């Protein structure tokens, strides 16, 4: 499988497909601007590091495991076609099925400035159709360089409208959760998922002293992670997204999860997710397309 992919889509010296010990295929990207890895199962970007940064920007747990049908802890999981729990079916997987099913490579190339481009398409099955009986095409394009651009495109190829919830559930590498702040969401309303679901308003920058699980709504703003220890800012600019999710599990929940990396791997990550969730779910009319785009860049300070 990897040999065939390298023949069809490999880019000499810049894009190589390899089979992991788990049997899953991983795309490894390395160009003059940046490097990244992406598992074809789930179209799951696992890592990204610009060449001008000494530390990766996208965090992957040291205890992350690749396994068929299982999500990977860290990176940028694809949540689709719903975010969180399914509205009516408790037995359906949280955050949808896209992050644990096969995707196939449909295109690769090199951008004019030297970035590497890779596009994957979700592969439907009888199992996914039982959970999502709508005709559609879902593509994820990743462009890796000094910045990281991700474009998730949902095309309704059927004759009836449908609604989707979605997110790029990106984990960012930080120095320490107690020494970072997130700006850009001041004045926004959010659903606070810790201790119940309550609607609140963000008055100032976000700082972290305990578990945070918030869905900020009706906001397209660029967010910035300010990292005192690593002396950098991570900029998160998006379009086609009206929700931003900010999450850190903190110690008790991280311990229960068991794969956050030891001894305190959770302290070196924070999630700032570009999403469409709760009242911001997206209606995709028959014959129409919705695209969620996010671009990340890191600036040393």
Percent helix range: under 10%
**Assembly level:** single chain
* The number of domains: 1
| CATH classification, class level | Mainly Beta
Taking the sheet with the most strands, its summary is: 9 strands, antiparallel
Total count of helical runs of at least 4 residues: 3
Low-confidence stretches: none
What is the β-strand count? Answer: 23
| Averaged pLDDT | 97
**Spatial sequence of strands, sheet with the most strands:** 6-7-8-9-23-19-18-13-16
Radius of gyration: 18 Å
CATH topology heading: Beta-galactosidase, Chain A, domain 5
> How would the global form be characterised?
globular
Tell me the series of helices and strands, N- to C-terminal: HEEEEEEEHEEEEEEEEEEEEEHEEE
Specify the structural class: mainly beta
Distance N to C terminus: 43 Å
> Approximately how much beta-strand content do the residues carry?
35-45%
Report on the architecture of this protein:
The chain has about 300 residues and is mainly β. The chain has a single domain, classed as Beta-galactosidase, Chain A, domain 5. Helix content is about 5%, strand content about 45%. The protein has helices at about 1-10, 125-130, 250-255, and strands spanning about 15-20, 25-30, 35-40, 45-50, 80, 105-110, 115-120, 135-145, 150-155, 160-165, 165-170, 170-175, 180-185, 190, 200, 205, 210-215, 225, 230-240, 245-250, 270-275, 280-285, 290-300. The strands form 4 sheets. It has a 9-stranded antiparallel sheet, with no helix packed on it. Strands 5, 11, 12, 14, 15, 17, 20 and 21 form an 8-stranded antiparallel sheet that branches. The chain starts with a helix and ends with a strand. The model has no long low-confidence stretch (mean pLDDT about 95).
């Amino acid at each position: 499988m990897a040999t065939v992919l390298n023949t069809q889509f490999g880019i000499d010296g810049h894009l190589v497909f390899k089979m992991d010990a788990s049997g899953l295929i991983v795309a490894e990207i390395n160009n003059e601007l940046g490097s990244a890895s992406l598992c074809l199962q789930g179209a799951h970007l696992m890592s990204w590091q610009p060449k001008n940064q000494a530390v990766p920007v996208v965090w992957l747990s040291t205890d992350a495991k690749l396994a068929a049908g299982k999500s990977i802890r860290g990176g940028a999981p694809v949540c689709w076609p719903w975010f969180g729990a399914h509205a009516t079916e408790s037995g359906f997987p949280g955050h949808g099925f896209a992050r644990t099913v096969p995707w196939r490579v449909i295109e690769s190339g090199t951008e004019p400035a030297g970035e590497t481009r890779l596009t994957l398409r979700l592969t439907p099955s009888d199992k996914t159709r039982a959970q999502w009986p709508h005709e559609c095409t879902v593509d994820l394009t990743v462009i890796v360089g000094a910045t990281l651009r991700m474009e998730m495109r949902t095309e309704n190829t059927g004759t009836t409208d449908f609604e989707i919830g979605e997110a790029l559930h990106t984990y960012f590498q930080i120095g320490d959760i107690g020494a970072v702040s997130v700006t850009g969401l001041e004045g926004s309303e959010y659903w606070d998922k810790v201790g119940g679901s309550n609607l609140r308003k963000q008055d100032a920058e976000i700082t972290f002293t305990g578990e945070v699980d918030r869905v900020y709504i009706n906001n397209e703003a660029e967010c910035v992670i300010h990292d005192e220890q690593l002396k950098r800012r991570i900029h998160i600019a998006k379009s086609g997204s009206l929700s931003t999710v900010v999450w850190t599990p903190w110690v008790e929940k991280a311990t229960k999860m068991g794969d956050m990396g030891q001894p305190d791997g959770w302290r070196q990550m924070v999630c700032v997710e570009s999403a469409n969730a709760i009242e911001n779910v997206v209606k995709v009319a028959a014959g129409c397309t919705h695209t969620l785009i996010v671009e990340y860049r890191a600036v040393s300070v």
